[in-house]
Amino acid sequence: MTPLIAARAYGAAIKQTETLGGKDDAAGGDFGAMLRGAMENTVKSTQNAESMMTQQASGKAELIDAVTSVANAETSLQTVIAVRDQVISAYQQIMQMSV
Question: Of 21, 48, 51, 80, which is most buried with the most CB atoms under 10 A?
């Protein structure tokens, strides 16, 4: 993962968190709900990208709209992958701790 991809993924994660209503509220935030929402947004953006590609192939949509939709889906997927990698890393660090 390059620094540029990480920065884009971070920016997309911040945008998704704001979309889901999370404003750094540690007392009322539900991490599971935030992850669920991020996954739902990723699935929706992927479905939208597939739809736009199909429409563009049949001549019903502009190429730029299809490309933009695919780029948004890619960014969402990279965000989910980056979060997954960080969760796995944190889990591995916890498991290595001595009690």
Answer: 80
Environment class of residue 58 by beta-carbon count within 10 Å: exposed (0-12), middle (13-18) or buried (19+)?
A: exposed
- CB–CB of 42/76 below 8 Å? yes
Asked if 42 and 80 count as a contact pair (C-beta separation under 8 A), the reply is: yes
CA atoms within 13 A on the CB side of 40: 9
Evaluated on CA atoms 32, 38, 41, 47, the torsion sign reads negative
pLDDT, position 26: 47
Give the pLDDT confidence score for residue 27 in this predicted structure. 47
- Residue 60 is classified by DSSP as S
CA separation (Å) from 23 to 10, 15, 30? 15, 11, 12
Neighbours of 47 (CB within 10 A): 12
Evaluate if residue 62 carries a pLDDT over 90.
Answer: yes
